[in-house]
Amino acid sequence: MSLPSSDAAIPPLPRAKAPRGRRSMFLRRPFFTVALIVAAAYVLAATFAPHVAPFDPVKQDFMAMMQGPSLVHPLGTDSYGQDILSRVIYGARYALIIGIFSVLIGAAGGLVIGLAAGLSGGWLEWALMRLIDSILALPSLILAVAFIAILGQGVDKVVVAVGLSMIGPFARTVRADVMQVRVQLFIEAAQLMSIPYLRVVWRHVLPNVIFPLAVQVTIRVSEAILVSSSLSFLGIGVTPPTPDWGLMIAEGRDFVSFAPWMSAMPGFALALLLIALSIVGDGIREEFDPKLRRGA
Amino acid sequence: MNDMTSHPVTTQDAAEPILRLEGLTVHRGAAKILDRVSLSLGRGETLALVGESGAGKSTIATALMRLLDGARVEGRAELDGAGDLLALPERRMVRLRGSRLSMIFQDAGSALNPSYTVGRQLTTTLRRTLGLSRAEARAKAVELFTSVGINDPDGRMSAFPHQLSGGMQQRVMVAIALAGNPDLLLADEPTSALDVTIQAQIVRLILAQTRARGASCIFVLHDLALASQSCDRIVVLYAGQVVESGPSREVLERSRHPYTRQLKSCVLEIGSKDLTAPEGTVPPHSEMPVGCRFATRCPRALPRCAGEAPPLVPARDDATGPLDHQFACWNPE
Amino acid sequence: MLRQALGKIAQTLVVLFFVSVASFGLLKLAPGDPIQIMLGSEYSQESYEQLTAQLGLDQPFLAQYADWALRFVQGDWGTSYVARTDIYTYAFKEALPVTLTLASFSLAFAILIGVPLGVISAVKKDTAFDAGSAVLALTGTAFPSFLLGILLIWFFAVKLQLFPVMGYISPWQDFWGGIYHMILPGLTLSTYFIAMITRLTRATLIEVMEQPYIAAARARGEPSWRVIWVHGVRNIAMPLVTILGLQLGTLLQGTVLTETVFNLPGIGQMLTSAVLGREYMVVQAGVMMTATLFIGVNLLVDLSYPFLDPRLRARK
Q1: A55 confidence band (pLDDT: 50, 70, 90)
Q2: How many domains would you assign to chain B?
Q3: Where is coiled-coil annotated (chain B) (predicted)?
Q4: Cis peptide bond N-terminal to A241, omega within 30
């Protein structure tokens, strides 16, 4: 084979273009950059919550119940006299922790099921596919509600329930990626060279699956946050007095006619984070998703 | 075809031409896709626009239909009795399309809406352009389908485009284009998507139908041989400019422009019906030479050609004076 | 085509079987002893065993499943321990219609607003209108619906007092009253779908409008409204229906939240109170109904393709 010479015959790719594109991603996508800064601010607020928050988020002050926004309480207080700003800041902690950990659980579960479905073949693959189909037949919130019914309430339970409910979509994408790798010849070639099966998976399949999976993880964090705060809003997620946004919105709902800030403040905190994360997610997907890039 | 080739001398002595196109220029962004294209077409005449792909042939047809989106169009296109097509308000243009002038597209397979039956696409056109009732339109549609050579016209009415062969689809397109009895038919490479065996059939069909209706037709073709066989006149385009025009036989047998000659020799050499491009490539719009645009590929180029653009001038016969045959070249054959 | 359809139906039935096994398993996984819950705090060993046998809980798993599935299909969904009502009546006859009313109302809203918005954005591509609707669409897809609902209540019901704060009137009994009570919940739930449909309509229509058959329609003198609405929009039906089918899950989970915001007695409220009351059989009923709805609608979407796109019909 004349590999070296054929290599030379291929016209050089416009190499200067790729690095320049990468470097200016923040300039090319101003929305993305702003959204990323907003998301980063949430992460910082969550990390340094004890230093940033003016009050103890669960300190009740019955002398200062349901006060509107003021200098002392910039976002007002709730029906227990708890400072809403402090609760919103601590709420970012819970939102991000629950979002990130549940997505990781979902991704891990999806990876296992998706790999198994993609690599097994035969009736096992068929059965696993129908299993994925049936998980996908339920919207993630309904699934999470079902898991909560079994597990009970609390932060850890919410993480597990939301994580389990997200396995379906992850499994589907992982399987699709595995199928794509599987049809590529190199796996067969590796098998012909009698390299142990697990090593083929480790060396050839995983790398092709992990990267798209990582992109998915970043995109789906916002979905996990939405589902977890929905659970809390329904009153079956985390339990009071945890400063969870969903819970705070639900608590304020009954007072919406005379203390609308109680729901609105944590609500806007949640909405802003979700919007920022979805812009960041779209940007990451458009920039790194091999499927979208091929189409473009 | 009567004896058009030895047709006398001066320009159309016939009645008022059906279309007179003057200085058609089309800009798209910084590029000038068409540069001062002028031509005129008599009633009942057929004209072929010939050239390589990218020469701007199809752009002329689309510009006349006013279907060019995102381009700047200059010039005049006088359609007899309707005024300047390029300046009419869109409302009046909509009424002209399909009734006074209509267009046959390159690939009938994608120019027919996949979601509607071919019968419906034809009858809606009939009902709008001729004001027919539902039943009349259906009868007329069956008649049109028969005349364009569709067998089982009644049954085909309820067929969807994808259920027909390429040739049948193009026949449907022809029927739709003829539906409003247009004076001017624009056929944009109507056979390029078809098998070679069917190509001639379709061209003959379009010609026969336009002649039978006394309509005029502009054919966009890239096959010089086919153009000279089928059309009365030929206009040769190169890089958005007319380089030679005249009666078919005149242009083919006494071509003056080196580019026309090259087009011709390509056909002769290869002996195929398809035109293969001459050596070299058309310069990109950004690097268009100031002089003759063909100079970079021309075997007869003079020093003058690079710097000065040749005007379109009539050929002269020593005995009779100027002929109905124009070319743009400093060093004609 | 018939073979394909039968294949689809068979596949759907298998998925339904899996879902039913899973939701039956849910009951088994649930903590706590259902017999104990049913008997209350004081019971004898004898009555415990008697009830266990009576409910078939001493049988192997598969036998129990078969027994349960048979009864489920017949509409015997068990009794709510706490409410002491028949779950079939409670879930299927009372809660489901509320959810379906809200869902179909929102869907109609979303299509009636989203498609025209998307069409206008596509036709006026790259104008201020297009940019504005893009921003709205992005916000709409990311904004949590329950927050939106509260804001709508605060503004329209509390401030302007135009609409009722909450509550449900069946449009089957009082049509206009039902519609009136559905406007705010419908708007809340449909915002996400308006945004999504706008984006999808815009993207697909822009692609369709570049097709030669659009130019051909213009060339034969079709007026521009016909070119857009008859020739363009007709050809985006299939991607639109596909996405709507796939997004039905999102719609259903949206109803759960919206029902809570507006105090509508649908599946959402039923599920929430069931979780709080540890009524696993009610949760099970909710899960089964949602999944069956989702699977059923997507089967319908699959079966509708040949009607939406003639190219998918068998060639003559």
Answers
A1: confident
A2: 1
A3: none
A4: yes
Give the dihedral sign, CA A245/A246/A252/A256: positive
Tens of pLDDT, residues B149-206: 898 999 999 999 999 998 899 999 999 999 989 999 999 988 887 887 788 888 888 9
Q: How far is the C-alpha of B50 from the C-alpha of B48, rounded, in Å?
A: 6
- Is the pLDDT at A12 greater than 60? The verdict is no
Q: Which residues in B lie closer than 8 A to residue C213 (C-beta atoms)?
A: 110-114
What single DSSP character describes residue C95? I
**What CA–CA distances, in Å, run from A144 to A201, A273, C101, C288?**
31, 21, 24, 14
- The CATH number of C93-311 is 1.10.3720.10
Q: Which residues does chain A have within 8 Å of residue C280's beta carbon, measured at their own beta carbons?
A: 149-150
Residue contact C290–A139, C-beta within 8 A: yes
Evaluate whether C268 touches C258 at the Cβ level (below 8 Å). yes
- Average pLDDT over every residue of A35-61: 81
Nearest C-alpha neighbor of A150 from the set C177, B241, C31, C115: C31
What string of DSSP letters covers C215-272?
A: HHHHHTT--HHHIIIIIIGGGGHHHHHHHHHHTHHHHHHHHHHHHHHHT--SHHHHHH
pLDDT of residue A15: 38
Answer yes or no: pTM beyond 0.90. no
CATH number of the domain residue B40 falls in: 3.40.50.300
Domain assignment of residue B27, given as a range? 11-237
State whether C212 and B98 contact (CB < 8 Å).
Answer: no
> Structural domains in chain A?
39-53+75-295 (1.10.3720.10)
ipTM at complex level: 0.83
B110, C213: Cβ pair inside 8 Å? yes
What is the location of CATH 1.10.3720.10 in chain C? 93-311
Q: What is the DSSP string of B181-196?
A: --SEEEEESTTTTS-H
Cα B330 from Cα B66, distance rounded (Å): 34
**Closest to C220 in 3D by CA, of B300, B312, B126, A262:** B126
